[in-house]
Amino acid sequence: EDSEDTDEEITSGAESDELDFPDEPEDEIDKSKFDRHGDAGEGGDGKLPEKRPPQGPIHYLKLSDQVEDGPSVGPKTAKRLNVVGIKTVEDLLNADADRVSSELEVSYITPQTVQDWQAQARLQCGVPHLRGHDAQFLVGCGYRTVEKVMSANPETVLVDLQAYLKTSEGERLLRVGNEPDLEEVKSWIENAKQSI
Question: Are 103 and 84 in contact (CB under 8 A)?
Fold first, then answer.
């Protein structure tokens, strides 16, 4: 799977710039079924794949993903984690936070920091449609489990979130995105309820 392909590269060689998928919204098209030359399907016979029913809720993070794909873990930290045997999100979730912090020997990566990464990853793996920065917001303001998110009152979460965003950590997180509003908080809670 080559995730570097652009839509232009995927459709080159097709008869037109647009692929015709009647009655199928564009965001449900699985473009991985097309090779680089515009041939559909594994056989490369040019036929479109059969329309399939939706596969269920979308999770933006999976246990098998590389640890770098998890919230709060950048390339430099991922390399450090790889050295101590943590290569995937699942490895991170199964790791002992005290051991990881000790083995990394980096002053700012405390056991609490590792536990925060774990809570963020669990949320993102567990709650459909939850983005990494949203998981960071939730954990930052005390909503560390799917169960706590699904049972939360949206107005209370928003108040807690607004207080968190006034902290230096919250301000740092907000630099990379917009402040969530009540509707977004409600969607997190509704999506968490879908996870059961």
Answer: yes
